[in-house]
Amino acid sequence: MLVAAGWALHVLVGQDQADYVANAGGLLVAAVVALCAAVSAMAATVVFFDVADRTCDDMLDLETGATRRTRFSLPTLRWWPFVQAEMEWVSPDVVLEMDADGARFIERITPRQRGRYREIRRRFTIRDMFGLTAIRFTRRFPAALVISPAKGRYSMSMTLRQTGGDGYSHPDGTSDGERIEMRRYAAGDPSRFILWKAYARTRKVLVRTPERAVSPQPSSVAFLIAGPEDEAAAATARKFIDEGLLGDDVIFTADGSQNVAESVAEALDQIVDSAEHRDDGGMGLTGLVRQVGRGRLNNCIVFAPAQEGPWVALLASFSRQLPAPATVIIGVDASLDDAAPRGRLARLMWRPKRRIDPTLLGLPDLVSRLNREGMQVRVVHRVTGQLIALPHLQALAALEGGRVAA
């Protein structure tokens, strides 16, 4: 379009009206645009053949949120006049950064979503420095990528003990049960197990002993619901499984899986594969009772997305079939920090604005709806492992609503 304008300036004004300035200006504009287009086309050809044989066979196992530098590189074109090269990932969804290394750019990626991918789609853009021309093309690169949920560095032990329920015990406890029963003191019993309050009241020396009954059945059944905003829930489920917080005999499965996982590796595979079933998230709950057996669902834990969807009705129907309501753990990634400055002078000179993630605004209604169905709901902040109470979520929603109304 700019070429046409320059040519029109040259013909209509420069030649017809014998305006030498307009004549020269029109030719100069057309020449600059033509030069930029020619150089961009030649540079795009060089980049096209340069990346044709590039592979990424070193990237076989990645984690969401973890930055990794790959072997894929792109020429910087620093010796080419007027042009620059850019690149972006079309699939999978990653945050891409380019590090200059001599005459080439080395890519550094941070995956955003879990899943399995057989190819990488990269889009290349060659543009001139004036922004007059741009040439784009997309190439597919065969790959075998497995992107797992982020492995947190925090401990979930305290979170698990705060979720309540009789099915939970200390993760470092012995398999013979908690010391909740009593008997008469016998020679050789450790003094730390003596119930001194009972001795002061009854003048009888009693000690704590482990419970006699140890159930041979799995202590917990866990299920991961796939859906929008489920990355934090998947990462939380992985953390629970990796740390063994649900017990060594836990039964785990996820949306899209036909069988229960028999090992930690199989559980991780199911968590990764569940990313392909976000559209029909929660459908796996319909067959879980038949697959596991109603009698083994006394302590059922469900990891759920932070966004309401069709899975809520499926979970409610599933929970009504259980001997005891399910415990729902919702994972969130959103930041809870206020954006206000800390210094007095900064607060006077700058009016603070609280930016609340939209994901948190719908959580109070979601948690309340699940509570009305009799389920215990725990909202876990994936970054810190802390529990977020419902009053805190309601306060955030009320604050955002008042700010928007104002």
Describe the structure.
It contains twelve helices and 15 strands. It is an alpha/beta fold and 406 residues long. The chain has three domains: 147 residues, Immunoglobulin-like; 36 residues, no CATH class; 191 residues, Rossmann fold. It has a six-stranded mixed β-sheet with strand order 11-10-12-13-14-15, sandwiched between helices. A four-stranded mixed β-sheet has the order 1-7-6-3. A hairpin with a 5-residue loop joins β14 and β15. The two termini are 45 Å apart.
Write the H/E string, N to C. HHEEEEEEEHEHEEHEHHEHEHHHEEH
Largest sheet: 6 strands, mixed
Overall CATH class of the largest domain = Alpha Beta
The total beta strand count reads 15
Task: Work out the radius of gyration.
Answer: 31 Å
Q: Return the CATH architecture of the largest domain.
A: 3-Layer(aba) Sandwich
By secondary-structure content and strand pairing, the structural class works out as alpha/beta
The global form is: elongated
Number of domains: 3
Number of helices: 12
- The chain-level mean pLDDT equals 77
Strand content: 15-25%
Helix content: 25-40%
The rounded distance between the terminal residues' Cα atoms is 45 Å
Question: Uncertain segments of ≥5 residues (pLDDT<50)?
Answer: 161-172, 174-179, 212-217, 338-342, 402-406
CATH topology group of the largest domain = Rossmann fold
Strand order, sheet with most strands: 11-10-12-13-14-15
